[in-house]
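Exercise: predict the structure of this protein bound to guanine.
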Amino acid sequence: MSATIIDGKDLSLALKDEMKVQIAQLEAKYGRKPCLSVIIVGEDPASQSYVRGKIKAAAYVGMDSRLIELPASVSQDELLSLIRDLNADGGVDGILVQLPLPKHIDSNLVIEAIAPAKDVDGFHPVNVANLWLGLDCMVPCTPKGVMKMLERAGIEVAGKTAVVVGRSNIVGKPVAKLLLDANATVILAHSRTKDLKAMTLQADILVAATGAIGLIKGDMVKPGAAVIDVGIGRGADGKLHGDVDFESACERAAYITPVPGGVGPMTITMLMANTIECFIKRMHAC
Ligand code: GUN
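Solution:
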């Protein structure tokens, strides 16, 4: 068997083109476009590259964006005060503070300072709580992107066994909850799981989000499974790889996402979707 590849780049482009049309309609209706505000602290090259991607995507879909670049020496109070200003700014719909932050700044305090209604990352405790309570909330971008890929690839989730490997707050836990909400039977595996292979072999849908390159080998994949690879890291060969050993997994999976060009582009695209969602909710709240 050779798996069908779910191309995250193509899908992202299609979704962003849909958003472009939606934003033009929103502007006609409400007299302004959604606006995403992105804060970056310091000069970490990886963070700068991610942030550039976010601003570029905002321009592509036709939304406004504000990039706020702060020196690594900025104080926690200055950052918190800036966030309060953006919370109160009627022209800002989404606020994203790029992580990680310098060590002298408490990330939890920063995340908690963002108004839940403008929390496009879905990291605020109110949004996390509401996700787990099944209430209206902002859903984190990567898990939302995983679900969108399954949906657009026409993969049925209800009644299936889904195995999520990795229990991070940003990916593993929320994607497990979204799969549960979509009526999958969910196994949440992690680094202390005994006999990981016995778990993954049960997976009709396998989501790998550990950051351990090549952890999931082909013989750990149930024949006919959909394999979603959230991991990304640079291998000894200097190339980008995921958590899944792509070549061997392709032999058994029915569907698979590549790395790069799989879940990665979807994360940024879902950030655009979340900003639009914040905008619409705020317009309706007026
Ligand atoms: N740094 C790496 N990934 C993310 C993300 O999804 N959101 C934010 N704010 N920072 C990140």
